[in-house]
């Protein structure tokens, strides 16, 4: 997968600047609180494992919106070759600190610094959740663009309609940030992928568990 320059100094649309700033603020606590996939249930991990099986051993996979790198680690431990990118330099710094053997860079999902069809797969794991429904199609189309024909995409998000204020969750860590997330249904995710040329292969919708406020949706798709 050929990489262009990182986007650290590139303009970021206004809406994403506040998302970037919020994650820069909470990056160290996020990395400590989500060091691995213990927050995922076996159902989500089954979808990630299905994605890993679909892309195959030694696949080049873009972990788009990689945060502090825990999903890149999960992929690498299963013989996939991840390349993580994230909007937040702070999150990328945590990813590099905690996973120094893996590749990470700063980039926005709406302008991925990769050539067309350069990835065997793209993982969008809870990284489209700060994008409103009106912008979802653009991000999914960009992910499909960098996926080679026959390659796979996996998208996970909280399921439903509307907006949640995430800021209170971070107040217990002493952070006063502005951060909202947008709910997306499996139909929204699959529809956006299909519009960009990636056909749905499977989907998971499960009810909220524990302290979760929302159901969860995961869609696996294949670029035609
Ligand atoms: C809830 S975290 C999930 C991180 C990681 N995928 C994980 O599962 O731990 C959301 C991440 O998406 C990133 N993000 C949100 N919008 C983005 C965008 N437009 N471009 C790149 N990254 C974005 C944020 O910076 C943040 O690191």
From TrEMBL:
Protein's UniProt keywords contain Methyltransferase: yes
Domain Methyltransferase: 61-151
Pfam (any one): Methyltransf_25
Coiled coil residues, start to end: none
UniProt cross-references to InterPro entries, sorted A to Z: Methyltransf_25 (IPR041698), Methyltransf_Superfamily (IPR050508), SAM-dependent_MTases_sf (IPR029063)
Top-level taxon of origin: Bacteria
BP-aspect Gene Ontology terms: methylation
Keywords annotated in UniProt: Methyltransferase, Transferase
Molecular functions (GO terms): methyltransferase activity
Protein name, UniProt field: Class I SAM-dependent methyltransferase
Species assigned in the record: Terrabacter aeriphilus
């Amino acid at each position: 997968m050929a990489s262009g320059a990182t986007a650290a100094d590139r303009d970021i649309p206004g809406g994403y600047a506040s998302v970037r700033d919020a994650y820069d603020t909470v990056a160290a606590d996020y990395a400590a609180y989500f060091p691995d996939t213990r927050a995922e249930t076996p159902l989500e991990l089954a979808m990630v494992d299905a994605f890993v099986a679909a892309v195959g051993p030694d696949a080049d996979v873009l972990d788009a919106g990689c945060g502090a790198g825990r999903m890149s680690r999960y992929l690498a431990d299963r013989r996939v070759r991840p390349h993580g990118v994230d909007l937040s330099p702070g999150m990328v710094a945590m990813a590099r600190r905690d996973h120094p053997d893996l590749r990470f860079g700063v980039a926005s999902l709406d302008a991925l610094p990769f050539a067309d069809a350069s990835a065997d797969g793209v993982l969008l794991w809870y990284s489209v959740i700060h994008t409103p429904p009106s912008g979802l199609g653009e991000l999914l189309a960009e992910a499909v663009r960098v996926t080679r024909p026959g390659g796979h995409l996996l998208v996970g998000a909280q399921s439903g309609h509307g907006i949640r204020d995430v800021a209170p969750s971070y107040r217990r860590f002493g952070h006063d940030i502005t951060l909202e997330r947008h709910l997306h249904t499996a139909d929204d995710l699959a529809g956006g992928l299909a519009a960009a040329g990636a056909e749905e292969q499977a989907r998971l919708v499960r009810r909220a568990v524990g302290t979760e406020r929302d159901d969860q949706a995961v869609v696996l798709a294949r670029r035609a």
